[in-house]
Specification:
Layout lengths: L17 E2 L2 E2 L11 H10 L4 E7 L9 H6 L6 E2 L2 E10 L11 H4 L4 E5 L14 H7 L5 E4 L11 H11 L2 E5 H4 L8 H15 L4 E3 L2 E2 L11 H6 L12 H8 L1
Parallel strand pairs: 1-3, 2-10, 3-5, 5-6, 6-7, 7-8, 8-9
Antiparallel strand pairs: 4-5
Length: about 250
């Protein structure tokens, strides 16, 4: 569990044992720390499970496919914690194609699917739900990345119903809720996502989206929304390592 001295976001109702959306120097923008730096920080923060999910190669300056292929050789137990190696994939078109092939994906522990500019132009497409839904069919996709961003609108109710059918889980991204967030309508849309997930009994993944080690495990802007909505603790995957491990498997 996150050490209460690490961040001011310690919350006994929603203990945080895992952080799976993080970026090392291999993501190429705003990330200066190596995988080793980040795992050491995660261990010092009190996490039990830590995931590296660098941006897929369609992101400018991110790693090439060979980097992701090499991760299968990386140690899974370091500094006293379990380590997973994944990717934050870019959805690259409305057909739901992503920027790593299925053979490469098969070597990873998990994948997050996200939409980023300039691959998609903000507000260019009215509804991108179908792109997410098609991308869910790629092997290893387990999580929906920051679907809260109003620049790339989706039908939350429809998308989350399909996600539940496909055993894919939305994240609530701390970066979308920060006062200086560049994503649009994060507060309002995360509130909607959580409300729908509560109704559907659909678990969520809380994510720091830390670029480098500075924010690993930091969920401080998420907790007020969970409290406000009386979101069920059993639907927070970061608090249940058994459930999260089953999803990854």
């Amino acid at each position: 569990m996150i050490n209460s001295n690490t961040f001011s976001n310690f919350n006994s109702k929603y203990p945080i044992y895992a952080d799976l959306h993080t970026h090392s120097i291999s993501s190429g923008h705003g990330s200066e720390d190596t995988i080793t730096d980040m795992i050491r920080c995660a261990s010092e923060s009190g996490l039990s499970l830590f995931g590296i999910s660098d941006h897929g190669p369609a992101t400018s300056s991110s790693a090439k496919p060979s980097y992701f292929q090499s991760l299968k050789l990386a140690d899974r137990d370091r500094f006293g914690i379990r380590v997973l190696y994944g990717a934050e994939l870019n959805i690259i078109n409305t057909a739901g194609d992503v920027d790593l092939d299925d053979d490469t994906l098969s070597t990873l522990d998990y994948a997050i699917i996200s939409i980023h500019p300039p691959i998609f132009k903000p507000y260019h497409d009215k509804d991108l739900s179908s792109a997410y839904i098609r991308a869910m069919d790629h092997p290893k996709v387990r999580f929906l990345g920051h679907i809260d961003d109003a620049r790339f609108p989706v039908d939350f109710e429809y998308l989350l119903e399909i996600a539940k059918e496909k055993h894919v889980y939305p994240e609530i991204n701390n970066g979308s809720l920060m006062p200086d967030a560049y994503r649009i309508n994060g507060q309002e849309n995360c509130r909607r996502i959580l409300s729908i997930c509560k109704k559907l009994d659909l678990p969520v993944l809380l994510s720091s989206d830390s670029h480098g080690k500075k924010s690993i495990g930091n969920m401080q802007y998420i907790f007020p929304l969970l409290e406000e909505l009386d979101f069920p603790a059993h639907l927070v995957l970061n608090s249940d390592l058994s459930a999260l491990s089953d999803i990854i498997r």
